[in-house]
Amino acid sequence: METYPQKFKYTKNSAFLTDEQRQFYEDNGFIVFKKLISDEILDQCLQRFVDICTKKVAPQGNTILMKDLELAKTGKTAEHLYYKINDFLYDDVFFQYAVYKKLVDVVSSIIGNNITATHSMLINKPPGSTCDASRHPMHQDQYYFPFGPPENVVAAWTALETINEKNALETINEKNGCLFVLPGTHKGKLYHHDYPQGVANKAFYGVQGFDDHPRVNLIMNKGDTVFFHPVILHGSGPNTTQGFRRAISVHYVDTNCEFYDFMGTKREEIANEIVQMFAKKNVILPYQDIWKYKGRLIRGPAGNFQKYTSRL
Ligand SMILES: O=C(O)CCC(=O)C(=O)O
Description:
Elements: H1 19-28, E1 30-33, H2 39-53, E2 64-67, H3 78-81, E3 82-86, H4 92-98, H5 101-111, E4 115-125, E5 136-139, E6 147-148, E7 153-159, E8 162-163, E9 169-170, E10 179-181, E11 216-218, E12 225-228, E13 234-236, E14 245-254, E15 258-259, H6 268-279, H7 287-294, E16 296-299, H8 306-309
Antiparallel strand pairs: 1-12, 2-3, 3-4, 4-14, 4-16, 5-13, 6-15, 7-12, 7-14, 8-9, 10-11, 10-13
The protein binds 2-oxoglutaric acid.
The site of 2-oxoglutaric acid has 11 residues, from β7, β13 and β14.
Organism: Popillia japonica
Pfam families: PhyH (PF05721)
Protein name: phytanoyl-CoA dioxygenase
């Protein structure tokens, strides 16, 4: 039988990516799609975030609100206090983003057709953050994930509306804390992560160095979406403007992924920290099961996440 050289390693099929787009992702570990998500869905998600912050609506499902510890001391409005909503997959409004057809189609070309969403965030960078808390240190998402292999995991991150100090629509850019990526680093290893100085937010670990490595700032408009590999080094700068910078993001994994045990490894510390965060919410589960519990089936049979996704 003839064998063919495997041309693509980091993507699965060409149903929703051209060969050129696949090659770009293979080489760089990320790809941006302009205006992939409709304003209608994004506006609903933004409003949901505001309604949850202002307590007009109670958080649904497992949703966790993360408070900016420094801004919390300054008595600002509720929309300033919360820098993140985590784990919104069981909230009907946010879930519309996670299952958005055009987005999941691209995901299916990267990781295949058996898709579970497992990590979800709405990330808020309010103006006036004092302790650099709105900076997201450079990191690799796979460092946190007890599942893989990494080729079967992908993040989708979409810019939400950003309004500047003049009340005008703005891109997400270098001044308000855009995402940056170090192209090609998805082909490397996982590096040591630590709490960087000046970052007070929980579980914001970072990697030092790489000052000479090319870095791409992703300047994005509302609805633009970047897909990125979980090993790529990336992060975001502080918001130095008087506007709010907001984005919404979901990580997808092949439902039939493997699970890894972090106990006795360098990643035990982060695993314990996250286990404790969930214990405070009365969710007492081993680290791997937390990710299953957070997850929600998107396409295909339930597979390895069945135990928890069947609770719907
Ligand atoms: O939105 C941000 O500022 C950072 C997001 C990020 O680093 C991530 O999604 O892993």
